[in-house]
Amino acid sequence: MSGPENCSDFAYGQVHDAGGLSMTVSIFADRPHLREELREDIGAAGLHVRECGPVAELLAGKPRSLGEVIFLDCPSLDAASLAALSRLDMRAAHSGAHLVISTSVDALDDVFGCCDQSNPQILVDPSRSERVIALGRVLALRPNLRLRELNEEDRLTLLRLTEQVGRIAERLEKLHADRKAHGGSAFRLESPGNGYHGETAHGDRLVRSARLELPEPRLVREIIRHRQLRAKFFDGDLFADPAWDILLDLTAARAEHARVSVTSLCIASGVPPTTALRWIGQMTSAGLLKRVEDPADRRRAFIALTDQAAEAMAGYFAETGVRSAELV
């Protein structure tokens, strides 16, 4: 990839598709077979490919519009490409373009650290079907698009590809309903218990007399270990619960005052990295997780529980009365 100084020349067209015009897509990947697969899939969706070439072409030539969607494949990154990716993320955020990035587990932390503005879809060693799902998610965000009519074979293929996303959506829909039912929060507010005092004669606000504490990290790690042992005797998919595994891992880390990288959290989730990233993104939107920049290196970022999520986890352990590692 060329040096980062040319990144300031990035320019994107405004997204105006209310008239039903199909979106335009640019593809930048160094692997020829990947470029061709993406071109075929984008064309099959009835969209127009504006550019398709190696990553170096992203920085070459005069400023031009790259369209409403940019697919970027970067399985490895050097210093120049890190800077370029940061600029691309900023430009995509300002223009409203949708950025889809495929990368590797080894480069995931670097890619995640660079992309803090455009909320891109990050795919880790994706299959072709996962890239099609990513395209479908982009299309779902754009109203008034006219897509070609699907035949029965297309519909069956699309159903298989989106089955996994559908399962996630069902859980997220319930989470969204819970948030609306409880004042837009992802947390349930119960009536004050013994740990609270009501208003005083002076009209002071309701306050807690004692803050609930998280359990010892050793206990949480033991619970995690017991959960992982189930996969030794049963199909792991039977017990897949990435949201809870993510919360448990971050609860232990918070109690240990440890930082958790996005790669580490993907591993802890027990599901493929691309699926884990979707959960992390949705849980962040729900106010459960937050992105924490590394003060020593702005190119790195970590994931942590929000204060409300930590409080909810402390309340959960207090309510269940867990005091030993017997609960799994």
TrEMBL record:
Residues 271-308 form the HTH marR-type domain. InterPro entries: CheY-like_superfamily, HTH_MarR-typ, WH-like_DNA-bd_sf, WH_DNA-bd_sf. Coiled coil: none annotated. One of its GO terms (molecular function) is DNA-binding transcription factor activity. SUPFAM superfamilies: CheY-like (SSF52172), Winged helix' DNA-binding domain (SSF46785). Pfam families: HTH_27. It comes from the Bacteria. This is HTH marR-type domain-containing protein. The lineage of its organism: Bacteria, Pseudomonadati, Pseudomonadota, Alphaproteobacteria, Sphingomonadales.
